[in-house]
TrEMBL record:
PANTHER family according to UniProt: G-PROTEIN COUPLED RECEPTOR, G-PROTEIN COUPLED RECEPTORS FAMILY 1 PROFILE DOMAIN-CONTAINING PROTEIN
Xref: Pfam families: 7tm_1
Limits of the G-protein coupled receptors family 1 profile domain: 35-293
Primary localization class, coarse: membrane
Name of the protein in question: G-protein coupled receptors family 1 profile domain-containing protein
GO molecular function: G protein-coupled receptor activity
Origin superkingdom: Eukaryota
């Protein structure tokens, strides 16, 4: 069962709790949106410049672009709804049956998309290191775009039944994540455990950790014939490993609290704060792409300065084509 906020009808004066459950999600939404959009613009710029010369090097960028886009949309789902609920006393979901159904669907859909894209980015980089055939035949931007679209379409089909949840009871109260159809509600409970927690959380996390381990093994054994290539592979691998580990640590508490640990948390007097904090940790993970990319991607700040000073990206292409990001 999904948590419904316990905010009062009239918000209290600013307190530590109000800051944590009301203001922090808004800050994450604003900062995360700006940072993810900047990452998308920079990666798209790099994609345009490098695709024609070294297309095998930029397939990972496609997954990262989709990851940043999915993370941006995710910030406006449960994260924003919880903030509005705690600041105003009424959540977005409870304002109409339409918003209830849309947030039910997009909330989970945008939780599943980022983990799928991050997993694919990790798999892509691992296979590029281990398989020359994969690097030559599959690791191309066009193939990556097709895979990303296929993932989005598949998750759309698996999550669309959530639109059937939600109803208005006899006294006019909107009941989200519930159904008058007992079979449908039972299917939702199974979905939370087996699809949301196991298939879209535990399995991707296991794949991320396995790919990280395989990447480390390959980099240790990789001969340093081309020092620039070796350093580039090491830099990208370290970035993806940090992204995966951070994502796992920040999102796993939320996945557990909203599935198998829900009854235990709801019985606590601090349930509102616990649920909100685990939500904030999850969406903090959606806001950290900028940090990892800006530190790791070579030339990131050059492109970003060009963007902020309103200069065209290609004005410095000559000085950046000698070195690649990925």
């Amino acid at each position: 069962m999904v948590w419904q906020n316990f905010a009062p009808e009239i918000p209290r004066l600013p307190t530590l709790e109000l800051i944590l459950v009301g203001i922090m999600p808004l800050v994450l939404t604003l900062c995360g949106t700006i940072c993810n959009l900047l990452c998308i613009i920079v990666l798209l710029s790099k994609l345009r410049r490098e695709a024609s010369r070294n297309s095998h090097r930029v397939s990972t960028n496609v997954y990262l672009i989709c990851l940043c886009f999915a993370d941006t949309i995710a910030l406006y789902q449960f994260n924003l709804d919880n903030s509005v609920a705690n600041l105003t006393g009424k959540s977005i979901m409870s304002r109409s049956l339409i918003t209830c159904k849309l947030l039910e669907f997009f909330g989970y859909y945008t939780l599943h998309l980022p983990v799928a894209y991050l997993t694919m980015a990790t798999i892509d980089r691992t296979f590029m290191l281990w398989s020359p055939a994969y690097k030559r035949k599959i690791a191309h931007p066009k193939q990556a775009w097709r895979i990303c679209i296929s993932i989005a379409g598949t998750l759309l089909l698996t999550d669309c039944f959530l639109l059937a949840l939600g109803y208005v009871d006899a006294d006019g109260t909107i009941q989200c994540f519930h159904s008058t159809n007992a079979a449908l509600y039972k299917a939702f409970l199974l979905y939370l455990t087996w699809f949301h927690l196991v298939l879209m959380t535990m399995v991707p996390f296991a794949v991320m950790l396995l790919c990280t381990l395989l990447t480390i093994i390959k980099l240790v054994r990789l001969p340093r014939v081309n020092e620039a290539s070796y350093l580039r592979n090491r830099r990208i691998s370290i970035m993806l490993a940090c992204m995966c580990i951070t994502y796992i640590l920040l999102t796993l508490p939320n996945r557990l609290c909203f599935s198998v640990l829900t009854p235990l948390v709801e019985s606590s007097i601090a349930a509102n704060v616990i649920f909100s904090l685990t939500d904030s940790l999850t969406y903090l993970a959606s806001s950290l792409n900028y940090l990892f990319l800006s530190v790791t991607v070579k030339g990131f700040w050059t492109d970003l300065r060009s963007l902020l000073t309103m200069r065209r990206f290609h004005s410095h292409t000559t000085e950046t084509t000698a070195s690649t990001y990925f």
